[in-house]
Design a protein that fits this description.
Length: 321
């Protein structure tokens, strides 16, 4: 088949409608700006800059879209309740945020949380990361999985699914484990409580991951089955590598200097050795995880935010089917 024809067919069959930043910004309509420049600066990550202009052009329109989705979800839920003649508790609207290490998932999630919480109805918005559902280091070491930390097999998937099932069922005081990047481990006895939020944002590397489907047709829930909307943050591999290495080098000058840090040893090596170490970790762990597990889930997202070299979102793809 002629390459031009094949490309045209691919575009016609794409389940996404693609927008430039300017086109997407117009969809903000009259959505008010509720964050100050100072608040936006406080929400950005160590190596994931966020400008107030990007909040206005990208995240305010997204906030407006999510408001429509959340309202529609309530309507559908109420219709189902009427059909079943039940009166269960409220079901939170759950948003999944996925993407590679160093792409800026945490910054995006925090900004969304603040914008959504400032809707006129003042909904209760909670945010959790799936890092807390990693197996503790002791288990990973015993199973030979420390080099696979962040891969799907390093997560306590049954515990995460139980957590999301309880949240979706409207249960009160649901607890999630807490992960410390400083200690590079799950914190024993530490939990965060999620108590019937209106909206829950779930951020993590592999939240859109699917496992091999059972041949006997048994129901096997995926994490994404609990999502009402999902966002994938995308960037070129070369940019992701650069951002990871830059963050690693900055952490050497900050958190890694603390003797209690799991990575304290990296603050005592030369810059050249640190660069080599960061590139090795990226190539042997994070890049493999990206190619094998994370990137293949991108087509499952409802919305894809594509970043350029300055961490600016230059393209938005919204699922149309």
């Amino acid at each position: 088949m002629d390459q031009t024809v094949a490309t045209a067919l691919d575009m016609d069959l794409s389940p996404y409608r693609v927008f430039t930043e300017r086109q997407w910004a117009r969809l903000r309509a009259d959505t008010p700006m509720t964050l100050s420049a100072q608040e936006v600066a406080q929400l950005q990550g160590l190596n994931a800059p966020m400008s107030i202009e990007q909040v206005e052009t990208i995240y305010l329109p997204l906030s407006r879209l999510l408001a429509f989705y959340a309202e529609a979800a309530v309507t559908i839920y109420q219709a189902t309740q009427n059909f079943l003649q039940t009166r269960d508790g409220k079901t939170p609207f759950i948003i999944g945020v996925a993407g590679s290490v160093s792409v800026g998932k945490s910054t995006t999630s925090r900004v969304l949380r603040e914008l959504l919480a400032r809707w006129p109805a003042s909904p209760k918005v909670d945010l959790i990361t799936t890092d807390g559902f990693l197996y503790p280091n002791a288990i990973l070491e015993a199973e030979g999985l420390m080099s696979k930390k962040g891969f799907p097999e390093s997560f306590d998937r049954p515990r995460l699914l139980k957590f999301l099932s309880d949240i979706k069922a409207g249960k009160r005081q649901v607890r999630a484990p807490v992960y410390s990047h400083f200690y590079y481990d799950v914190m024993p006895g530490h939990t965060v409580t999620v108590d019937r939020p209106d909206i829950l944002i779930v951020e993590g590397l592999n939240v859109l991951q699917t496992r091999e489907l059972p041949k006997d047709g048994r129901a096997v829930p995926f994490v994404s089955d609990f999502f009402d909307f999902s966002v994938y943050i995308d960037a070129d591999e070369k940019l992701l590598r650069k951002w990871y290495v830059d963050r690693f080098m900055r952490l050497r000058e900050t958190a890694f200097r603390d003797p209690g840090s799991y990575f304290h040893k990296y603050s005592r090596i030369s810059d050249e050795e640190a660069q080599e170490t960061a590139h090795r970790i990226w190539n042997e762990i994070n890049l493999v995880n990206l190619r094998e597990n994370i990137l293949p889930t991108r087509p499952r997202a409802d919305l894809i935010l594509s970043k350029n070299a300055s961490h600016r979102i230059s393209k938005v793809a919204l699922r149309k089917i």
